Amino acid sequence: MVCIRQATVDDLLAMQACNLLCLPENYQMKYYLYHILSWPQLLFVAEDYDGRIVGYVLAKMEEDASEPCHGHITSLAVLRTHRKLGLATKLMTAAQNAMESVFGAEYVSLHVRRSNRAAFTLYTSSLSYRIHDVEAKYYADGEDAYDMRKQLKGRPHAHSHSHGHHHHHHHGGCCSGESKAASPVDVGAAADPGTGASGSNSSAPASAAGA
Amino acid sequence: MKKHIASNSLHDPEALILYLSLLEQQEKFDAAVEVLSGDLGSLIGIQEDRLRIQGRLLARACNYSAATEIFERVLVSCPDDWEVFLCYLGCLLEDDLNWLKMDATMQICSPSFDDNGACKANHLSNDEFNSRISSAVSLVQRLQTDCNGGFVRGAYLANIEIERRCRLCGTKHDDNFVEALLTYFCRFGHLSCFASDVEIFLHLLTLEERDKFLEKLMKTLETPPASPLKALDQAMSIFKVHESLGVMFYLPLTDLEVTTKRMLQMYCKNLTLSKDLDPQENMHGEELLSMISNILVVLFWRTRILGYLLEAIMVLEYGLTIRRYVWQYKIQLVHLYSLLGALPLAYEWYCMLEVKNILVETISHHILPQMLNSPLWSETGDLLSDYLKFMDDHLRESADLTCVAYRYRNYSKVIEFVQFKERLEHSSRLLTARLDMSILQLKQKANSLEEVECIFENLNCGSKLLEMSNEDKMKILTFNEDFHARPWWSPTPNINYLADHFEEGFPWLKEKLDLLLGRQLTMLYAKNKKKAVGEEGIVKKLIERKSLLPRLIYLSIQISPISLKENVGNGSLHDADAIGERKSLLEKYARNIGLSFDDAMSMLLAIFKGQKPLKDLGPDVISWLNFTVFVNAWNLCCHHLESPRKDSSMNSWSVVDYMLRSCISEQLTHPETVLGVPGSNLPVLVQLVTEPLAWHILVIQSCIRSMLPAGKKKKKTGLVDSLNSSYAHAVCDSVQCLISVLQDIGKWVSNQIKKSEDQDVDSLLSHLQRSSSQEELGSILSILEASESMSVSEVGERISAALQSWSAATVCRKISAARRSLLLQFLSICESKLKLLYSINKSI
Known about the structure:
The complex is a heterodimer of chains A (211) and B (844).
Chain A (H helix, E strand, L loop, with lengths): L2 E4 L5 H11 L6 H10 L5 E4 L5 E9 L8 E9 L8 H17 L3 E7 L3 H10 L3 E6 L9 E7 L37 E3 L14 H4 L2
Parallel strand pairs in A: 4-5
Antiparallel strand pairs in A: 1-2, 2-3, 3-4, 4-8, 5-7, 6-7
Chain B lengths: L1 H7 L4 H13 L3 H9 L9 H14 L3 H14 L4 H12 L4 H4 L13 H7 L4 H21 L7 H15 L6 H14 L5 H9 L4 H16 L5 H17 L8 H17 L16 H18 L2 H17 L4 H13 L3 H10 L6 H5 L4 H5 L4 H31 L3 H15 L2 H17 L4 H10 L4 H6 L2 H5 L30 H20 L7 H24 L4 H4 L8 H20 L4 H12 L12 H18 L13 H18 L12 H26 L11 H4 L3 H27 L4 H12 L11 H8 L4 H14 L2 H36 L1
Helix pairs in contact in B: 2-3, 3-4, 4-5, 5-6, 9-10, 10-11, 11-13, 12-14, 13-14, 15-16, 15-39, 16-17, 17-18, 17-38, 18-19, 22-23, 22-24, 24-29, 29-31, 29-33, 31-33, 33-34, 33-35, 34-35, 34-37, 35-37, 35-41, 37-41, 38-41
């Protein structure tokens, strides 16, 4: 009965609380805002039936024209009390589906700490991500990150109409794009704390800095 | 819109949503359904999303059977969508009146969970009701079969909801409700979300049902699952249910103590399960320590034995030694150390939480109120300035961010973002912080009249702050704090149950439990309505009082030589205006603390004359004393106007002296307040010295400056000689009184820290080593210490090293050092004020 829905700006408060509870890296608010104001279709929250946000996924589209169109998972978190329910998989699936159907992404990338076995298992076993590269000392504390990628079908913008800039995206409904048979994986936190984390020694994200 | 659609159609889901919303607001539900079912409906790419909107529209059109069918279709593809299940049931049983009232902009309705409403609204005959319930049951069974073996809980929780509806209508035996809860436990009891899943239902149990349910749950502990991890998780769920039902408030003390120790043993024994976990992964059984700590605080409340409070701290410190990322432990420690008078430690843990970004808005309430009443001025200033900087930066960057949303053509997000910005702009926390910052600056500089005047130059003489609490601003205040993580004994910053006596007995308990549960239920039911109106009212009053304070201080130090001369005629028009303003502000201040101006004056007089006890002032003595100081200053200027009292015994200087002396002496002679914790009255003492006493010294300084004619200040003849007025004598008496009061405080503080740190530590440790009626279980401390002997092979290297490094004595030493440092900082403030008073005395 946890529902996966698109995030609203007001959800940012609860999403940041989730971030604090789950991840060692905390992001600056403007980073969240930059994501939600630029790619609102790619931010999802898991809301328990009492209205509490128990997990979220923060994702974006990479805008480097020299690379193929692709998305990036910036941050994923599920509260301890709601793990092993497949929520992380549902959140990821929702974001990936939106990247594909709204923006026509060819693949999706993410970073994960080398030591975060739970998250690594989720990405490889449940979500079919593969290691693309290893980024040495990616995190502020000096830990390496796996640069992981998953190929999407890369279909062009769905429902493209005469107004080329009009993207189709769904709005806030529950369980949008969720996978019915989600496999339960214990994942507390994952993804990309290297950019955008406001930790004492991490740098501000390039994209947000331009906001 | 119709014309536009006919010529250009719609190309964007946002446009369609807007169009549907317009139709819905006009109550043209059928037309909206038609649009959604037509070609335009395909703009909403995901079918379930489209169906949800369709279901809502049909329900609002009172076409319940069609809505039921639609919601059923959504459930078949999304069986875990609890909200849709409630919509389905509401439409099926036609008992949800919320459809009619709902806001058209809502994506989906929030079904009612109010039992009274649901029952009364049902108009179906018994047969009809039973038949519809049967179809709900068969749908649920189908959903369960479809997702058999999965982790989809919605279809199973649905059984409990169905039983709840039946129970409401009296169509089935009440036992079924309890049975449904137990069945759910058997299936999902090992999940950590079990307790929060059923919490809302637990609240509906009668006492009899509650006991039956608990009894059956406890029986399951006798035959635990084979997997140790599952057994641990299931046991934790049972403890959480106990916590939700408030069992700790009525279980006999001995049983409660045994339960606590068993829980701790369970945690220690199961450390082996976490042997191979990464450092950043949560430990198995982690929540046990929070629950144990909560129960130990209940034991402290019920017995006032300090040892329990210390044990609560030990347990959490122990947990953090093993894994330092547990947010919940840190929050609990922030509150426990604040209670224990070890605020520097509380602050240290708060800093370790790394609260930043928007969280400074939502969770700084855990520490700020205590810091504001402490002598830790520099740290408090840092907290406030970090917060204000974050908010100012955000508000400044908002325009750029709005442009981002425009650039990406996310227009609905522009609206959301602007509303969000306004929400932060009108934050009650922000307003309070701006006021607190100014008041803190005044406190810090209160020893120098000139420096205080400099601060007022930047504050437009306090008028700027006064403006902040005007009616318009109060109306649009927002309350963004997240109180969810606060400890049970202090659900909001303005409530501390521990300050009241615990009384055994059910009537009392029920009321208290309702309050405690009410906190959770408020959050459960009112998604966006953050807190009870009561709490908001308290905050508004506090803001008003804080905004009055600087201006009243400013006016109180505006003592002109002419106003001090006796038997002069009316003052200038300007003076009359200032006096009028002061009177009106004092009236407002009196109203704010609960009485009319005249009644407040009568109260002060009655206390001064010994006709009423000091405790009649209520808990907020600081505001009363501030009021007394301001009244005295006002009296200095308006004696030639209409004097408030002709009573000659009412010398306002004497009243201030008496009130300060009495209140401070009461704190010094009864240092262990009802809380039963040594030093717990320190915040009141600190406030007495740094607020009313400090403001009174400013009034004295201003008075002396006005009494001494220009150029005579350096002369050897003192003030009394140069101005043989009754004021001069009053000032002298007051200075003497303050000196004596501060000397008393100095002695008290010195007494508190005269023991060596080792003696302190021994004394704290002795509280932990007290004898227990359950010797076989040993003390909490002995259980913790026993775990230190667990081998590397059992718990792994990391946990083993952590266990070795933990020591109760180290924690006690930290507590002692923190308390000393706090007392020393307070002493230094008192000494600086004494020094000032000595110099004033000398000049007189």
